[in-house]
Design goal:
Order of helices and strands of chain A: EHEEHEEHEEHEEE
Helix content of chain A: 25-40%
Structural class of chain A: alpha+beta
CATH class of the largest domain in chain A: Alpha Beta
CATH topology of the largest domain in chain B: Rossmann fold
Number of helices of chain B: 22
Distance between the termini of chain B: 56 Å
Number of strands of chain A: 10
Structural class of chain B: alpha/beta
CATH superfamily of the largest domain in chain A: ACT domain
Strand order of the largest sheet of chain B: 3-2-4-5-7-6
Largest interface: A-B, 29 and 28 residues
CATH topology of the largest domain in chain A: Alpha-Beta Plaits
Radius of gyration of chain A: 19 Å
Shape of chain A: elongated
Oligomer: heterodimer
Shape of chain B: globular
Strand content of chain A: 35-45%
Helix content of chain B: 25-40%
CATH architecture of the largest domain in chain A: 2-Layer Sandwich
Number of domains of chain B: 3
Strand order of the largest sheet of chain A: 2-3-1-4-10
Number of helices of chain A: 4
CATH superfamily of the largest domain in chain B: Thiamin diphosphate (ThDP)-binding fold, Pyr/PP domains
Number of domains of chain A: 2
């Protein structure tokens, strides 16, 4: 079974130490976490986590179930393969001389990214998009010399009206596509 | 009504029906202890090491079915609980541990006797709390007990800063818990249950493997009905022993690394296996690729993370064992499997795993058998870990649930004495025998003082061979008999017992065994027998590491099939 990237979203209680619990769980179970993005959700006192895991289907199934077992986790869902919008934000500080600056600006334009800072020997680019877009831009900018890079990690949301994370009374905590082994 | 945090905790414990607390006090938790005498319903038992408190609470929980409670102070008191908490976690014992913590302004400043116990116990508790205001205490205690005893039980730790014990707040005990992130699934999926029933009804060589989940759920009648209706033989894991009477005609013993050969053969040949409340621990399954190669597997368990974790199963059913079996039983047709049962019976005759050979010397297996005979199988047996544990599992016949109390998942040496104490305190009318190895016994020997102080009539049998027996066995079979750090000296246990105020005897010869056991039974209070047994006796059957259940070693051969060089051992757990 091949390892692929899976996206898991979870609603967790906004209590001190919850992030610690999750991180501790990943380390202990040996899960390969690519990125975690956490922030407020639409429900007061609940935070939303978007986790990208690299693994086989079986292993990711374990991740999802183990996360669900944590008392502070209210809902968890594996939305890989669902119709999702994924976005990420990156700040990229590139080396720029007077001769290369306009070329960089052209590339930034093509990607509909923005230059948010200009220095004597660098520019800082802000780009939002899915991972492929950010990776492509990065590859092109690498040639000029990367000084600094900060990425937020993936955010994901399903298209349309349904939400896999909707908290209903009495409903099981984590939604599985099928009750699989 | 306004009261101090300490009072709120005591009131809450009383509301939860707590009757016994095992603990040792200290500076940080002193305000709580100061209030305790106002609550005579809460009996406090002072142990001699906090590890003893945790194991006693565990033994108490297993014997009574109630939540075991232990308390300790901050710093070293809390860290001393860690082994006992981890032990409860791995065996799913319901426990609440309350630890004192330094006052709030001192937290995070490396204060005197300060330790981040919530951080340390994160991976070994079902949940834990650091309570930063007295107003949250009642709700926290309510949640803690609910979590400890429901779903898949486990230990919950509550860490309370010293000044929170003193702070005052309104006491109101909540009637309900509000845990949006905790909703254990109790009902099994009807389609899965139907699928399972079909598989069972069509099977020609079905087998049930029952684990501790049956005992936690109390599904004895349902299991019996399933087995008897469809005439399915039953084997159990170590911790499942007692969930199905071993005297029953359909009982075929224990499977696993030291299980009966015929039980392992049954697993290997079955075409349909119903696994109930067990988690495919590596001691039970041996090599996973060789586990039940011919069977479709049904897995019933309340914890969804256990489904498919170690072994791929065909029909997973998440739910409470009793609830699921009730539904499943409605769909099972009455049927016979005469040939299959005969086959198992023949295997049992050809591979008499529980027959004790003749010997001049005192055999440990013989000691267990005699304890069984004198107690008529009615005692609660609390074991240590290692050879003594395996022999106790093999050579005593258990008919009732929780008649065997043993540390399975963590395998903690030193569990035996404090857990036996806890079991006896919880069920004073039970006859409780503590079976210990001479190594493990020395790890928590200090609790003999607690046994005496509490007048707990625990009978202690030390299987004394002068070795860390199980490790020595491995060294003999797989490490070219290089006995590194396994020969172990000990004190004169009888004199130590007497020094603590417990009468005792030494037994060196076969004919002394029964009279000694009878004398122990006749004694009103605690009694210790030091059984000096054949020193290099091995536990058989044995499935060597890396082998599958089918490759069980049976005869007491000192070399032969065993792998001689440890470097060639296949990669497996230990």
């Amino acid at each position: 079974m091949a390892a692929t990237k899976h996206t898991i979203v979870a609603l967790v209680e906004d209590k001190p130490g919850v992030l610690n619990r999750m991180a501790s769980l990943f380390r202990r179970r040996g899960f390969n976490i690519e990125s975690i993005a956490v922030g407020h959700s639409e429900i007061p006192h609940l935070s939303r986590m978007t986790i990208v895991v690299d693994g086989t289907t079986t292993m990711v199934e374990q991740v999802r179930k183990q996360l669900g077992k944590v008392i502070d986790v209210v809902r968890v869902s594996d939305i890989t393969g669902d119709d999702v919008i994924t976005r990420e934000l990156a700040l990229i500080k590139v080396k720029a001389t007077s001769s290369t600056r306009s070329e960089i600006m052209q590339i930034v334009d093509i990607f509909r990214a923005n230059i948010v800072d200009v220095g004597s020997d660098s520019v800082t680019v802000e780009v939002t998009g899915d991972e492929e877009k950010i990776d492509s831009l990065l590859n092109l900018l690498r040639g000029f010399g990367l000084k600094e890079l900060a990425r937020t990690g993936r955010l994901a949301m399903t298209r349309g009206a349904s939400s896999p994370l909707r908290v209903e009374k009495g409903s099981p905590k984590s939604r599985a596509k099928k009750q699989k082994a | 009504m306004k009261m101090s945090g300490a009072q709120i905790i005591c009131e809450s414990l009383v509301k939860e029906g707590v009757e016994v607390i095992f603990g040792i006090l200290g500076g940080a938790i002193l305000p709580l202890y100061d209030i305790l005498p106002r609550y005579p319903q809460l009996r406090h038992i002072l142990v001699r090491h906090e590890q003893g408190a945790a194991h006693a609470a565990d033994g108490y929980a297993r014997a009574t079915g109630k939540v075991g409670v232990c308390m300790a102070t901050s710093g070293p008191g809390a860290t001393n609980l860690v082994t006992g908490i981890a032990n409860a976690h791995l065996d799913s014992s319901p426990m609440v541990a309350i630890t004192g913590q330094v006052a709030r302004p001192f937290i995070g400043k490396d204060a005197f006797q300060e330790i981040d116990i919530t951080g340390i116990t994160l991976p070994i508790t079902k949940h834990n709390y650091l309570v930063l205001e007295a107003g949250s205490l009642a709700r926290t205690v309510k949640e803690a007990f609910h979590l400890a005893r429901s779903g898949r039980p486990g230990p919950v730790l509550i860490d309370v800063p010293r000044d929170v014990f003193i702070e005052e707040a309104e006491f109101h005990y909540p009637s309900k818990v509000n845990l949006p992130g905790y909703k254990p699934t109790l009902q099994g999926h009807p389609a899965q249950i139907k699928k399972a029933a079909k598989l069972i009804n069509e099977a020609r060589q079905p087998l049930i493997i029952a684990g501790r989940g049956v005992i936690i759920s109390g599904a004895y009648a349902e299991l019996k009905q399933l087995a008897e209706t469809a005439q399915i033989p039953v084997v159990t894991t170590l911790l499942g022993i007692g969930c199905f009477p071993e005297s029953h005609i359909l009982s075929f013993g224990m499977l696993g690394m030291h299980g009966m050969a015929y039980a392992n053969m049954a697993v290997t040949t079955a075409d349909a296996i119903i696994t109930i409340g067990m988690r495919f621990d590596d001691r039970a399954t041996a090599k996973v690729s060789g586990f039940a190669p011919n069977a479709r597997i049904i897995h019933i368990d309340i914890d969804p993370t256990e489904i498919g974790k170690n072994v791929r199963v065909d029909v997973p059913i998440v739910g409470d064992v009793t609830v699921v079996l009730k539904e499943l039983n409605k769909l099972i047709t009455a049927i016979e499997h005469i040939d299959w049962l005969e086959q198992l019976d023949n295997w049992r005759k050809e591979h008499p795993s529980t027959v004790i050979r003749d010997s001049e010397g005192l055999l440990p297996q013989f000691v267990i058998r005699k304890i069984y005979e004198v107690t008529e199988g009615e005692a609660t047996i609390v074991t240590g870990v290692g050879q003594n544990q395996m022999w106790a599992a093999q050579h005593y016949q258990y008919d009732k649930p929780n008649s065997l109390i043993s540390s399975g998942g963590l395998g903690t040496m030193g569990f035996e004495l404090p857990a036996a104490l806890g079991a006896k305190i919880g069920r004073p009318d039970n006859i409780v025998w503590c079976i210990a190895g001479d190594g493990g016994f020395q790890m928590t020997i200090q609790e003999l003082a607690t046994v005496v102080q509490e007048k707990a009539a625990v009978k202690i049998a030390i299987i004394d061979n002068g070795y860390l027996g199980m490790v020595r066995q491995w060294q003999e079979l797989f490490y070219g008999k290089r006995y590194v750090a396994t020969p172990l000296s000990g004190p004169d246990f009888v004199r130590v017992a007497e020094a603590y105020g417990i009468p005792g005897l030494r037994v060196k010869h076969k004919e002394e065994a029964v009279p000694a056991i009878e004398q122990a039974m006749a004694e009103q209070g605690p009694f210790l027998i030091d059984f000096v047994v054949e020193p290099e006796e091995n536990v058989y059957p044995m499935v060597p590491p890396g082998a599958s259940l089918a490759e069980v070693l049976e005869e007491p051969r000192k070399e032969a099939k065993a792998v001689k060089d440890s470097a060639k051992l296949p990669v497996s757990n230990i």
